[in-house]
Every structure is written in structure tokens, then in C-alpha cells.
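QA checklist item 7 of 12: single-chain prediction sanity check.
[x] sequence parsed
[x] length recorded as 157
[x] structure emitted
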Amino acid sequence: MSTASAHTTLQDELKLINCLIDLMKQEQQCLVAADTDGLGTLTPRKTELVEQLGTLAAQRHASLQQDGCDGSEAGMQAWVKRLNNPAIQANWQHVLEKMRAAKELNRINGMLINKQMTHNQNLIQAMRTPSHAVDTGFYGPSGHATPVSGKRPLVVG
């Protein structure tokens, strides 16, 4: 792969990362709003973008190996330094910055998902757990309060 195609690959990666970040911001809004339908429409597109980014990164790594560098991010850094091309250096830095931003959004979205899952689990647990009210306001023949076992207390009002 030539320098021009490596530069093109970087430009393509940058475009995809920007799309991914926009999508992850939408995902965050859906998570905050508990919009599961919205999440359902975003998830396939997010998966597609991540797969495309992986393909481009693999192409870039193969290009690096053809140019005698390590097929990794460290090899990319050495390659960019060796070329001493300001446009390629700027694109590489933008890719790195955007990837950091995407990772941070992913971290925050993961926290929102965990928070929602915990909330849902607590709700489910509350629905499964019977009321343990001892003082029901009802008295048995002995004059003592009658506990409700496994039944919901009577609500008046």
C-alpha cells in the first residue's frame, strides 16, 4: 500500500470514527431516556461501524508491514514520524484523539447501562419479595396482630 492509500485509509478511519462518536452520543441520549426502541435501531449500525473500523485498521496494519514497520499502533507512530508529512501526522493525531473520545463515550455509556441494569434488577427483586409487614392493623382471635405471609397488605384509600 502506498503512502497515498495509507493517508486515504486514515481519512476513511477519521470519517468512520466521527460517525461512531455521533452514534454513541445518540446511544447515550437513548440510555438516559431509557429508550430501548431507539437503542435497538442504533446497535446494528454501531456494530457495522466498529467492524468497518476494524477492517480499515487491518488494512493500515498490513500497509505498515509492507513498508517494513510493525503492524500495530506503535508501528504506525514510527511510520508517521519517518514520513515527516504534516498532513499525515495531523490525520493520525486526529484519529488518536477521536478514538480516545469514542472510548470515553463507550465507558460512560457502559456505566449508564450498568446503572439501568442495577435499577431494573432492584425493581424485579422488589416485585418478587413479599411484604414483611408485621403490623397489618388486623388482629386475630387472640388479640395479636396477624402477619401477612406471602400476601399483599390491604390498601385502603
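[x] summary fact logged: The chain has one domain: 3-128.
[ ] second reviewer sign-off
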